[in-house]
């Protein structure tokens, strides 16, 4: 007797060795992946009905003890434990329950979101069957990592050329530092910095250029010059005009989670429920983007490592990154050389490459689609290897 740890590919191999009837493959594939789903805001009646429905379907539902006391005016959260086949049974039974009509629709949507999301940049669909790498260029004097700061156009072009040769899929250019404690840069100054280098870069290189900004005026200038992605640390919340500009120009947008502003975000950040707060923030900002006219396939999400997060918060996000998959958008993560990598071992930013690459491997395993990196060449090597193992 031995324990099997199976993904779909390994399971198929085991079924063939077992000489299982191929007609049964799909039945057992649905038993393979166990889902743990948090369900919020249930009434006492809804929680009790769902508990019984789950048990009848071979699944289970964790509910608070107070539910059994039938308190009418309280709302409850619950956690459903079920595989794909059991969820199908639950959905069928819930269709006959008027009190839980919305829930069966939500579960149906959840199951149907297992396919890979579509990412569209400019007029091209980007395949997400491998990890994509975003190289970082900072044209600021005060970015937290000196190795990413550039001012000379020749040096910038040479670095971008090297990044492309190493396997970068996007280049992200920042003209304002958003490190913890950073002061806001005036919009005119940010545009002036970009004006010196962006037109030449777009003309010389075909790679999609992302601009790291939360200001509508900066984004409008950059898009006119050929940028195809706006990377907004505020998730379209600092400048409400930005969403309309993104929508009108049909460019990609990165919606990131942040708590506070760059100047204040690391002053005692606190969460009652870290993953719940980030998930709901991203969901609401996606809804805002869609209502503003941004096409869903243009949206990328980022949980915002280091942006209003305590040390352990960053580690929890990395461990539980896959939970954001149910938002059905590509996940970008920027972890490169950040303090949560160096603090436990008192490492300077220059000494954090090995830790950065180790975390990259975990991020890919846990569901990251795009990795934002200062060091593209080693990051690409890691991505190729880990993709070969886990994808």
Could you describe the 3D structure shown?
There is one protein chain. Helices cover 42% and strands 16% of the residues. It has 391 residues and is α/β, with parallel strands linked by helices. The protein has 2 domains: 33-112, Ribosomal Protein S8, Chain: A, domain 1 (2-Layer Sandwich), CATH 3.30.1370; 119-390, TIM Barrel (Alpha-Beta Barrel), CATH 3.20.20.20. The protein has an 8-stranded parallel sheet with strand order 11-10-9-8-7-6-13-12. A 3-stranded antiparallel sheet has the order 1-3-2. β6, α6 and β7 (170-174) form a beta-alpha-beta unit.
Key attributes of the depicted protein:
single chain; 391 residues; alpha/beta; Ribosomal Protein S8, Chain: A, domain 1; TIM Barrel; 2 domains; eight-stranded parallel sheet; three-stranded antiparallel sheet
Short note summarizing the structure:
This protein is 42% helix and 16% strand.
Strand-helix topology:
Elements: H1 8-17, H2 25-32, E1 34-42, H3 44-56, E2 60-62, E3 76-83, H4 84-94, H5 101-112, E4 119-121, E5 124-126, E6 132-138, H6 153-166, E7 170-174, H7 187-204, E8 209-212, H8 216-224, E9 229-232, H9 241-249, E10 252-256, H10 274-291, E11 299-302, H11 311-319, E12 332-334, H12 339-342, H13 353-365, E13 370-373, H14 376-390
Parallel strand pairs: 6-7, 6-13, 7-8, 8-9, 9-10, 10-11, 12-13
Antiparallel strand pairs: 1-3, 2-3, 4-5
Helix pairs in contact: 3-4, 4-5, 6-14, 7-8, 8-9, 13-14
Shape: globular
CATH fold title of the largest domain: TIM Barrel
Secondary-structure-based class equals alpha/beta
Q: Using the coordinates above, name the CATH class of the largest domain.
A: Alpha Beta
Q: Could you estimate the helical fraction of the residues in percent?
A: 40-55%
Tally of structural domains: 2
Largest sheet: 8 strands, parallel
How far is it from the N-terminal to the C-terminal residue, by CA? 28 Å
- Unreliable segments (pLDDT under 50, ≥5 consecutive)? none
Radius of gyration computed on alpha carbons: 23 Å
Order of helices and strands: HHEHEEHHEEEHEHEHEHEHEHEHHEH
Number of helices: 14
Going across the major beta sheet, what is the strand order? 11-10-9-8-7-6-13-12
Number of strands: 13
CATH superfamily of the largest domain: Dihydropteroate synthase-like
Summed over residues and divided by their number, the pLDDT gives a mean of: 93
């Amino acid at each position: 007797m031995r324990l099997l740890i199976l993904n779909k590919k390994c399971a198929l191999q085991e079924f063939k060795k077992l000489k299982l009837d191929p007609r049964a493959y799909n039945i057992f594939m649905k038993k393979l992946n166990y889902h743990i789903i948090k369900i919020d805001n249930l009434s006492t009646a809804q929680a009790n009905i769902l508990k019984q429905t789950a048990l009848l379907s071979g699944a289970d539902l964790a509910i608070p003890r107070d539910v059994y006391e039938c308190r009418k005016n309280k709302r409850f959260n619950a956690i459903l434990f079920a595989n794909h086949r059991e969820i199908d049974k639950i959905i069928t039974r819930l269709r006959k329950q008027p009190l839980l009509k919305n829930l069966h629709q939500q579960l149906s949507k959840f199951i149907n979101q297992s396919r890979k999301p579509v990412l569209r940049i400019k007029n091209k669909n980007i395949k997400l069957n491998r990890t994509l790498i975003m190289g970082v260029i900072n044209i600021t004097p005060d970015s937290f990592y000196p190795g990413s700061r550039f001012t000379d156009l020749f040096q910038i072009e040479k670095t971008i050329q090297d990044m492309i040769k190493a396997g970068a899929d996007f280049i992200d250019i920042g003209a304002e530092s958003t490190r913890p404690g950073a002061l806001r840069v005036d919009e005119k100054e940010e545009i002036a910095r970009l004006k010196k280098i962006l037109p030449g870069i777009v003309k010389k290189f075909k790679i999609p250029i992302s601009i790291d900004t939360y200001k509508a005026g900066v984004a409008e200038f950059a898009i006119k010059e050929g940028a195809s992605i706006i990377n907004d640390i505020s998730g379209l919340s600092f400048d409400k005009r930005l969403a309309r500009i993104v929508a009108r120009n049909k460019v990609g947008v990165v919606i990131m989670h942040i708590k506070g502003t760059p100047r204040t975000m690391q002053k005692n950040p606190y969460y009652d429920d870290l993953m719940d707060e980030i998930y709901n923030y991203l969901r609401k900002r996606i809804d805002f983007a869609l209502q503003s006219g941004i096409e869903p396939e243009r949206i990328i999400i980022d949980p915002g490592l280091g942006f209003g997060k305590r040390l352990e918060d960053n580690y929890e996000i990395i461990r539980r990154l896959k939970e954001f998959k149910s938002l059905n958008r590509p996940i970008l993560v920027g972890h490169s050389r950040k303090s949560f990598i160096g603090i436990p071992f008192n490492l300077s930013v220059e000494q954090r490459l090995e830790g950065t690459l180790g975390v990259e491997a975990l991020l890919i395993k846990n569901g990251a689609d795009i990795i934002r990196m200062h060091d593209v060449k080693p990051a690409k090597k890691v991505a190729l290897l880990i993709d070969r193992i886990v994808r």
